[in-house]
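SAMPLE LOG
Freezer: B-3
Tube label: C17
Construct: single chain, 154 aa
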Amino acid sequence: SRPRHRRDEEAPQPVTAPLVIIDTNVIVSGLLTSDRGAPTTRILDQTMTGEIRPLVSLDLLAEYRSVLLRPAIRSRHGLDENEIDTILTAIAESAVVCEPINPPSAPPDRGDLHLWSRLAAQPAAILVTSDQALVDDSPDWATVVTPRAFVESR
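STRUCTURE (predicted):
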């Protein structure tokens, strides 16, 4: 007969960080808010520490950089180009690179096609966005949530 193991002797099960597509608005908000407990800040922090695995493409990383370097946004977060690059490098270090594919349906706003395309390429991923229209009109083949809903679900 096999020996019995007490519960505390069992090997711990590995926890896999969720695969998340983070909309640019979440990254920007995470940098702009002074509330360290805000969902967008927590998501940005967890992404930089590897607790969340961002699903990115080179185009999405370039979009993050471009938006964060816009003068109006830059004046609000106060970071210089090197500091922005340091943040993006930290995000990229834990990222899964995935090139988009044609999604089975179109997003509510054509400008968000790149997000739907990443979801189509990785159906197990979660899109986290502050764009309520994307959440409200999310396709049945994907998971689209707000930053608050994402943080509360973990």
